[in-house]
Amino acid sequence: MGENKNIEELDAFARKYVKEIPKEKISLDFTASVMNKILLQSQQKVFTTKALISKKGWFVIAIVVLAIVLIPFKNLEQSFLNFPEFNFSFLEKFQFLNLLESVNISNTVLYAIFFFGLMIIAQVFVLKNYFNKRFS
To answer: Can you give the pTM of this predicted structure?
Structure first.
């Protein structure tokens, strides 16, 4: 009971002082000034993304990878790296090909895998465009 009396007193006190507070009047161009502030905020550059690796960097990386792949095979007689020769003749004893020949995949499963791949690719492009528009 004591709590209800205290709440009623606080309620009466709040009502009394809320009535005494004068109402604020907004200016005639209030909406226009708010819209101008919003326009200025949207015009400011909020967030720009930069690539972690520049195009020049990707070009250098591509050249280095191509050099690593192509230089050892340029002259097979003179190689910088001498790799040991492996004999994989023991794999002929295993019959992996017969195992794979016995597996049958229905056309429905193949279509499902194909469309699943297409949907993943489509989502990549859609999300890329969405985030590019969002952050630009």
So the answer is: 0.28
Say how many CA atoms lie within 13 Å of 57 toward its Cβ: 4
Q: Please give the Cα distance from 85 to 93 (Å, whole number).
A: 20
Residues 9-35: pLDDT tens digits?
A: 899 989 988 888 888 888 888 888 888
Lookup result for tokens 């101008």:
36
CA separation for the pair 56, 62 (Å, rounded): 10
In this structure, which amino acid lies at residue 72? P
Domain ranges of the chain: 2-43
| Token pair listed for 95 | 């019959």
Q: How far is CA 9 from CA 4, 18, 20, 53, 67, in A?
A: 9, 14, 17, 67, 85
Alpha helices in the chain (DSSP H): 2-20, 30-43, 55-74, 96-101, 107-135
